């Protein structure tokens, strides 16, 4: 029989996002990019080539340019990805109550996954639920977090049960929050078209995760099934279909596209920056843009989709480009995160 005098063991929750430099200064941006771009799941080339190429050439050239962009993004509270993550941690903790211990970490830089796991270990949690804050599974994001967690806990003498929430791109609460934010913008004015812009990945990443060669980058992604449930492209299309249904959009009302490609190898298509240039010639002058691969505002949403794509669209003859904010720590999103954790 359990000892009534012993304290109840709590459940640990680890929320993880991608990462951010400590500041927008070039030295901190360089440190962040060095860690990010030498991750073998992000840049999947041999380490003997990856480290000298990126640490010796790519990062030194890219860091000053990226630092200028981060300075545009920075706020009085610092990096949006960081403070929105800390806000989410606090609100989810309040929602779940004292039976849970909620920690927050970044895959790259601070607060680290290691420090967040140590916080949970010090709290003597009974088990740990890890929620990488990437809605659609990709080896370069969720897979990297999973590998990092296991690399850390393998050195613990006692390893508690660990459960990963690998993807939530179809989760009802996640979809409902995006729909709510979208309706706020649609209530303000009419839009000719909607764009769902997702972070891109190389096509080879999809192929490497598809041993049966089911994915052909075509109609196979029209339905999410057991065979393609870990295909990033299929997950993105599924998220878009569900949000579109919630907004009452027909297939002709929206476009699914991909951004942030790097290098010469083919990445998932269509590319957002190319697709949007054709809109004005088709009579599409007012566009509402979503970034459903991100749960918090960051460089890829605020700067890339919100500012750079807006400029490209207007140069092509567009009149209004509006970015829908990320989920950040919206009350409906906090409820959705808490619900996913309770179900786990």
Automatic annotation (TrEMBL):
Classification via Pfam families: Ferrochelatase (PF00762)
Broad class of enzyme this protein falls into: lyase
EC annotation from Swiss-Prot or TrEMBL: 4.98.1.1
GO CC list: cytoplasm
GO biological process, one term: heme biosynthetic process
Annotated SUPFAM superfamilies: Chelatase
PROSITE patterns, sorted: FERROCHELATASE (PS00534)
Flavoprotein is among the record's keywords: no
Membrane-crossing residue ranges in chain numbering: none
Binding residue positions for Fe(2+): 199, 300
Catalytic reaction(s) noted: Fe-coproporphyrin III + 2 H(+) = coproporphyrin III + Fe(2+); heme b + 2 H(+) = protoporphyrin IX + Fe(2+)
Subcellular location: Cytoplasm
Pathway where this protein functions: Porphyrin-containing compound metabolism; protoheme biosynthesis; protoheme from protoporphyrin-IX: step 1/1
HAMAP family associated with the record: Ferrochelatase
The protein's role, per its UniProt record: Catalyzes the ferrous insertion into protoporphyrin IX.
Protein name: Ferrochelatase
Organism expressing this protein natively: Hymenobacter elongatus
Organism classification: Bacteria, Pseudomonadati, Bacteroidota, Cytophagia, Cytophagales
């Amino acid at each position: 029989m359990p000892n009534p005098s012993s304290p109840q063991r709590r459940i640990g929750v680890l929320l993880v996002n991608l990462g951010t430099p400590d500041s927008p200064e070039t030295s901190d941006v360089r440190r962040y990019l060095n860690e990010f771009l030498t991750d073998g799941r992000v840049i999947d080339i041999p380490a003997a080539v990856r480290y000298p190429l990126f640490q010796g050439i790519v990062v030194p050239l890219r860091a000053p340019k990226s630092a200028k962009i981060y300075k545009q993004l920075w706020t009085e509270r610092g990096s949006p990805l960081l403070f929105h993550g800390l806000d989410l941690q606090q609100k989810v903790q309040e929602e779940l109550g004292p039976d849970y211990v909620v920690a927050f970490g970044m895959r790259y830089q601070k607060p680290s996954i290691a420090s967040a796991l140590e916080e949970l270990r010090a709290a003597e949690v009974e088990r740990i639920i890890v929620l990488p804050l990437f809605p659609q599974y990709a080896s370069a994001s969720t897979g990297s977090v999973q590998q990092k967690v296991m690399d850390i806990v393998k050195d613990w003498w006692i390893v508690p049960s660990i459960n990963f929430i690998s993807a939530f791109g179809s989760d009802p609460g996640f979809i409902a929050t995006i729909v709510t934010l979208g309706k706020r913008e649609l209530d303000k004015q009419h839009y000719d078209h909607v764009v769902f812009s997702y972070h891109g990945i190389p096509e080879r990443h999809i192929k490497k995760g598809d041993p049966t060669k089911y994915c052909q980058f075509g109609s196979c992604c029209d339905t999410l099934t057991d065979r393609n449930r870990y295909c990033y492209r299929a997950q993105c299309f599924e998220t878009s279909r569900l949000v579109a249904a919630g907004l009452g959009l027909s297939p002709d009302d929206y476009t699914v596209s991909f951004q942030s490609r790097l290098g010469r190898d083919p990445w998932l298509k269509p590319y957002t920056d190319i697709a949007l240039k054709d809109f004005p010639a088709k009579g599409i002058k007012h566009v509402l843009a979503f970034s459903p691969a991100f749960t918090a505002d960051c460089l890829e949403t605020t700067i890339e989709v919100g500012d750079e794509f807006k400029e490209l669209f207007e140069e092509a003859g567009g009149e209004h480009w509006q970015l829908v904010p990320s989920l950040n720590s919206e009350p409906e999103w906090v409820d959705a995160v808490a619900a996913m954790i309770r179900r786990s």
